[in-house]
Amino acid sequence: MRLDRGYVPGVSTTGTAPAPTIPLQNGARIPRLGLGTWPMDDREAEQAVAQAIGLGYRLIDTAFNYGNETGVGRGIAASGVPREELFVTTKLNKEDHGVDEAQRAFERSATKLDVDYIDLLLIHWPNPAQDRYVDAYRGLVRLLEDGRVSAIGLSNFKPAHVDRVIEATGVVPDVDQIELDPTRPRPQERAYLRGKDVVCQSWSPLGGRHAGLREHPVVAEIAQKRGRTPGQIVLRWHLELGCVPIPKSADAERQRQNLEVFDFSLSQDDLARLATLDRGGEGITDSDAFGH
Ligand SMILES: NC(=O)c1ccc[n+]([C@@H]2O[C@H](COP(=O)([O-])OP(=O)(O)OC[C@H]3O[C@@H](n4cnc5c(N)ncnc54)[C@H](OP(=O)(O)O)[C@@H]3O)[C@@H](O)[C@H]2O)c1
């Protein structure tokens, strides 16, 4: 498929260099790190998004469910950075699982965001109990074919869910956004996604609102050794795995730190130390049981 618009990597004139990009299955490119916006409200999102883009962020992650797409759109407009240099992700809810419903969800989110195309549209949760995610995905494929979105994907889909959408449509998703951090490293899921060339995107990459991971002694020790912050060590772990983390912060200094992770790497020894944090599957939200 030929893309005649969509994300074009640019340069930052104000802050840290934008993250490098990687190619996606259906022809677009995605920045290797972005800004999460949950649980910001419209007002906070507007300020945090404009600030982050000024610092060099180019990927912004939102969702209809977050109730802040209007604020995200205002932040994008206030940033002054051309639309084509930004990569905007949003997600649709279980009420939108259907071919026509997905089209309507696109229109609704695009209107709130005040954009005429969306870079990446995701199905937020599979909700297998209602068994309509395959139709929702058919709706995304149509939006991709119509050029309304540059990339399509899934979130919280297990390998069996991903297999089903590929079998039904023959179209491989660009991304699966899953809950991932060193305590929940999910090696089987990541290997599955890698095998299909689906980019793994990490939500709650810093372990979420609880500071436990960021204060873990192993993380602190590696941070001290490398002269980095604990958050930077954790974000670098995602990059070493080939995943795209979307850390959330509204704070300018933490946003800056979170983006400055492309000028160092972790050693095999660091990675082996971080592997000891694995809680063996404990604490992963079960998307067969939960979703909206
Ligand atoms: N697909 C899904 O189902 C799903 C589910 C949940 C989240 N998400 C997405 O993923 C994004 C990230 O996940 P998340 O917000 O749950 O968790 P997260 O990014 O792992 O952690 C956010 C928390 O870490 C703090 N923080 C950020 N940078 C820091 C730093 N450098 N040092 C110390 N603390 C730092 C933030 O506080 P401050 O803001 O005060 O800095 C906030 O409390 C969300 O915003 C959302 O866009 C997707």
UniProtKB/TrEMBL annotation:
The family database entries (PROSITE patterns) matched by this protein are listed as: ALDOKETO_REDUCTASE_1 (PS00798), ALDOKETO_REDUCTASE_3 (PS00063)
Spell out where the chain crosses the membrane.
none
Supply the InterPro entries for this chain.
Answer: AKR, Aldo/ket_reductase_CS, NAD(P)_OxRdtase_dom_sf, NADP_OxRdtase_dom
Q: Which Gene3D superfamilies match?
A: NADP-dependent oxidoreductase domain
Provide the residue span(s) of the region labelled Disordered: 1-20
Would the keyword Repeat turn up in this protein's UniProt record? no
A single GO molecular function term of this UniProt record:
oxidoreductase activity, acting on the CH-OH group of donors, NAD or NADP as acceptor
Tell me yes or no: is Oxidoreductase among this UniProt entry's keywords.
Answer: yes
User: Residue limits of the NADP-dependent oxidoreductase domain?
Assistant: 33-277
Keywords associated with the record? NADP, Oxidoreductase
What protein family is recorded?
Answer: Belongs to the aldo/keto reductase family.
Protein name per Swiss-Prot or TrEMBL:
Unannotated protein
